[in-house]
Amino acid sequence: MTIKSIKQLKNLKGKRVLVRADFNVPLTKDGKVGQSEDFRIVRTAPTINYLIKKGARVIIMAHLGRPEGKTNPKLSLKPVAKRLAQVINRPVKLSPEIVGAKTTELVKNLKNGEVLLLENVRFDAREETADKKFAQQLSILGDLFVNDGFAVSHRDQASVSTIQQFLPSYAGFLLEDEINHLNRALRLPKKPLVVIIGGAKMETKIKVIKNFTKVAKRVLLGGALANTVLKVMGVTIGKSAFEPEMFAEVKKLKLTDNQIVVPVDGVMATKTDAKSGRMDAFADIKSDELILDIGPDTIKLYASIIKSAKMVMWNGPMGLIENPVFAKGTKSLIKILAAAKAETIIGGGETVQMIRKMKLEDKFTFISTGGGAMLEFLEGKKLPGLKNIIK
Ligand code: ADP
Ligand code: 3PG
Ligand code: MG
């Protein structure tokens, strides 16, 4: 595998470089980029700073939320432009439109080393339909295309993939970093590799679990998705939700040879907004209870397995972390991994958010900015946004 990297580009001075970034970050109620939510912006800064230093004229394309092809002031990139300017410590101009006379003028007047952000590309319905004409309109704003939006690279969309038909395309530093780390975990891991998968749904993660059973010594499960596996194994899960439509797929996983490990106890309550939980083994769960976190024995078991690992790949929380009562399992696991000797590769929106809140992000080898993109990459799929960039 070779990656076409921006490092290979000579003489960027005065070149108009069109960068696709993923600045899809949660906004606070008053429409700002929250303090611990700017991870994706911070991680894109090295690419932008490099282009600035080389004297390129930097034009950034990004989306926010799912405006479904219509202008929506609540999803304007204004707060993102503001935060980006703080992060790179330079002015960032925001065009009020995506393509059009205003943008053309702003690009024309953009000086070497200056940064222009276009308004939310998803305000135009042609973005999500991967429209050729739209991609071409975007492409004429630049001389080169740099994809640094790993987190959106699983989308076949105009500013992500279609544009690569019209411009020489390269990977930014973040994209390159993501591909290299995730690829190594999947194909050339340090062994023993331990994989931990948690989160909401088996449906979104089963292919990743399956793929990792080929290389991992152990795959530890947690979160709501473990309920489906427990159910298939005949363990009582009280009133917890599970995915019966996934039974057939789950049964195909080898559940008997100890490679896949499920929680042995949990933190239970009768409602998700409970003020306290009850720790117990699943055998003693009551019929009206929900499993909302992994319990202390599971944490001990997982800690002992992690101890013997040389590499750990983790995606998805162990419990309903939105309620602090049920966030202990995830927090414990974060602390265990932060202190582990093993290389640690972490991903998933909610998981990473918690790590950032605990200010422990420096304790991990690599933290992915990708949600869906990371999962699809780890399923072994070819991502549309990498088409002309990885050979
Ligand atoms: P990530 O974005 O980190 O990959 P997911 O999106 O798959 O993770 O899942 C995160 C969600 O899963 C969280 O909102 C969390 O509340 C939920 N979740 C995890 N475990 C449970 C559980 N036992 N019961 C209910 N919800 C859970
Ligand atoms: C993400 O946040 O996972 C990416 O920006 C993709 O967003 P989407 O799921 O709305 O396409
Ligand atoms: Mg999520």
Task: Tell me the layout of helices and strands.
Layout (H helix, E strand, L loop, with lengths): L15 E5 L18 H15 L3 E5 L16 H11 L3 E3 L6 H9 L5 E3 L14 H8 L4 E4 L21 E3 L1 H15 L5 E5 L4 H11 L5 E4 L3 H8 L14 H6 L7 E2 L3 E5 L8 E4 L8 E5 L1 H12 L3 E5 L12 H12 L3 E5 L1 H9 L8 E2 L4 H7 L13
Parallel strand pairs: 1-2, 1-5, 2-4, 3-4, 5-6, 7-8, 7-13, 8-9, 13-14, 14-15
Antiparallel strand pairs: 10-11, 10-12
Bound molecules: adenosine-5'-diphosphate, 3-phosphoglyceric acid and magnesium ion (MG).
The site of 3-phosphoglyceric acid has 8 residues, from loops.
Give a description of the structure.
There is one protein chain. This protein is an alpha/beta fold and 391 residues long. It has helices spanning 39-53, 78-88, 101-109, 132-139, 173-187, 202-212, 225-232, 247-252, 296-307, 328-339, 349-357, 372-378; strands at residues 16-20, 57-61, 92-94, 115-117, 144-147, 169-171, 193-197, 218-221, 260-261, 265-269, 278-281, 290-294, 311-315, 343-347, 366-367. Helix 3 links the parallel strand 3 and strand 4. The structure holds adenosine-5'-diphosphate (ADP), 3-phosphoglyceric acid and magnesium ion.
